[in-house]
Amino acid sequence: MGNEGVLTRGMPAWGRQLGMERAPAVVAYVLTLKDTNVAGGKPRRAPRRGSRRSSCPPPPLYRREPSSIRGDGSRAAIHPADVHGRFNAARWVVFAVLLAIYVLVPWLKIVGNPAVLLDVAHRRFFLFGAVFNAQDIWLTFFLLSGIGFGLVALTAVAGRVWCGWGCPQTVFLEGVFRPIQRLIEGSAAQRIRREAGPWTVERIARRTLLWSIYLVLALGARAVVDDPGGALGEP
Prior knowledge:
235 residues, two-stranded antiparallel ribbon, 51% helix, 3-stranded antiparallel beta sheet, mainly alpha
């Protein structure tokens, strides 16, 4: 509602005039004026507990219109801001180490077997030299239980360290795909301005190049993780 406006009631379209970055700030400021005194008007107080007004549903801004969906039902792309600083630099170091581990582990040999490899074609799973077949699937209960309790303990001790620093999705998204997007489509502000405009030849070319690189990286990652012939030296 704040982005599209209600012209029949005299409410302008803030999203078009202010942009997608400043419109949420204006909406947040307007919400802070609720239950405050207005110059020339009667004082307005918050409803008491148990009254009829306190049982009213929340404003439709939060209940029916998420920030990622426009008024016409189309999806609004989310562009994270470009963050810099010592913590971000330290996270880049962690990303580099984890990416090197992800790429090299399937090729390392322990007792003649890959260190970690999921051999789907032959229904085998290699984990630090040990070989597990399809009939050993029941052992995954202990593995997944240990991983689950480990994540809970790590989150309780160090907060969102796993989600922000060690999760493979975060490592590949923030360490690989997001930098490529910034390199091809520019900073977050540039991408927002480009998204607000029409589909030009430049925009189509940038998006085609970006997704082509994404496809090549995805296929390459799959070949590294699930390539028994290459990792095991088999034909």
